[in-house]
Amino acid sequence: MGLFEKIFPRRRQPTESGGVFETFTAYAPAMNTWNGQLYEAAQIRAAIDARSRHISKLRIVVEGSAKPKLQTRLRHAPNEFQTWPQFLYRLNTIRDMQNTAFIVPVYDVNGEKTGIFPILPSRCELVEYNGVPWLRYEFASGKKAAVPLAEVGIMTKFQYRDDLFGENNRALDETMELLGVQSKGIAEAVKNSNTFRFMAKKNNFASPEDLAKERQAFNRTNLEAEGGGMLLFPNTYTDIRQIEAKPYTVDPKTMEIIRTNVFYYFGVNEKILMNLANGDEWASFYEGCVEEFAVQLSEVLSRMLFSPLERSNGSRVYATANRLQYMSNADKISVSKEMGDRGQLMLDEIREIWNLPPLPNGMGRYITLRGEYYMIAEDGTIVKKADPKRDGTREEEQNATEQ
After folding, report:
1. CB-based burial, 128-144: b 16+ in 10 Å, e otherwise
2. Spatial distance between the Cα atoms of 126 and 148, rounded to a whole number of angstroms
3. How many Cα atoms are found within 13 Å in the side-chain-facing hemisphere of 66?
4. CA distance 21 to 129
5. What's the distance, CA 271 to chain centroid?
6. What tens digit of pLDDT does each residue of 283-303 get?
7. 264 found inside a domain
8. Can you tell me whether residue 113 is helix, strand or coil?
9. Where does the pLDDT of residue 198 fall: very low under 50, low under 70, confident under 90, or very high at 90 and above?
10. What is the pLDDT of residue 331?
11. What is the DSSP string of 153-200?
């Protein structure tokens, strides 16, 4: 069984004989990038990669009691083919490239959901079949599938004309054309740097045929010889001048404008691309880019995987990140001390700021209040005073002694 069959196992699919497909929306989005080459531009790819790398660090948390088997699988990985970082990286890359990303459920042979998968269809359309909206895909391989819209998660950017899909990337056309001109200009400059061309006036020729013969003879004599040499101009040529090629390249100021356009469009800057952002700068990037993605993904996955009743009872999926990890060491020390002493952070949360693993046996689920340690329950409430070095056994020993 191939990947396509695993994601879309054999199940009831809408057919033309059982009903009529009708376009659900009047606007048909074109899910194509700039001449298919948007991701081939180095600056565009770097900007998307920077966003996707940071988004791939998000932590997916599943809460509630509904669908326990599905929740268990999702806590480990979104599907059997990807890890969560891989899933998030590709999902954001698809959304940045096409301004629309689809998340489809993965089923087992019994038709039960076992995970989720981001797809990149070459063409899709929203259709109505027997009064129910479906999302129909045609992949690059030519295979087709249709999924009920209610089971599909849709993430968008630049959503305007269509009710469900994002816009195209035609706003980048001028920037891409300038990038293309710049690349070609540099390539031509390199080629022409090793080329010598001359222009001369030839006298006393009777016809164009004579001029062509003279040109061929000159080329054979001066340009086809092996081992180099020198150009010889007979007295039939006058006003001999060298042609200096000056290919046009974008000046540095204009090139900076092009780069700025790319940064504006994708919400990044040079420090983010070069991994030079400090805590405050990364926090701004997080709030403007990563957090928006996390909020939308959390809502999309919760709606996609759980019914309204299940969501009202507390079952949900959300993506989160520890922004404190990007602070300077001095800021980390200050936060760890001030927030830890006041009981606002548990030991494991403080260790996470410093990229340290949780303590074993639940010892990291302690907070300190004025130097005393308290054990925290799963729901976050304080249950008892405890000694973290002895894992709460002192209170038990005291009770036993009193008895």
Report:
1. bbeeeebbbbebeeeee
2. 10
3. 16
4. 6
5. 18
6. 889 888 999 999 999 999 999
7. no
8. strand
9. low
10. 81
11. EEEESS--SSSSS---SGGGHHHHHHHHHHHHHHHHHHHHTT--EEEE
Domains in the chain, number = 2
Q: How far apart are CA 362 and CA 348, in angstroms?
A: 9
Of 153, 169, 185, the last residue of a domain is 169
Q: Inform me whether the pLDDT recorded for 16 exceeds 50.
A: no
Residues in the chain: 403
Show the tokens assigned to 121.
Answer: 């269809």
What mean pLDDT, rounded, does the chain reach? 76
The answer to whether residue 182 sits within a structural domain is: no
Displacement of CA 238 from its chain's centroid (Å) = 62
Q: Would you say residue 276 lies in a domain?
A: no
Spatial distance between the Cα atoms of 152 and 310, rounded to a whole number of angstroms: 17
Which range marks the domain in which residue 142 is found? 3-169
The pTM of the full predicted model, rounded to 2 decimals, is 0.70
Measured CA distances, 274 to 58, 277, 381 (Å): 20, 8, 42
Alpha carbon distances (Å) from 340 to 330, 350, 373:
15, 7, 11
Q: How far apart are CA 165 and CA 99, in angstroms?
A: 8
- Token pair of 71 as six digits: 């929740």
Query: And the tokens for 324?
Result: 């404190």
**Residue 198: CB atoms within 10 Å:** 11
CA distance 323 to 310: 30
Residue pair 29/66 in contact (Cβ under 8 Å)? The answer is no
Q: Is 31 a member of any domain?
A: yes
The pLDDT of residue 388 is above 90:
no
- Residue-wise pLDDT tens digits, 340-374: 777 788 888 888 888 788 888 877 877 766 656 66
Q: H or E element: which one contains 221?
A: helix 208-222
Nearest 10 degrees: Cα torsion 207, 212, 218, 220: -140
Domain edge (last residue) among 116, 141, 169: 169
pLDDT bin (cut points 50, 70, 90) of residue 252 is confident
Distances, alpha carbon 297 to alpha carbons 87, 128, 291, 301, in Å: 12, 26, 10, 6
% the chain with pLDDT above 90: 24
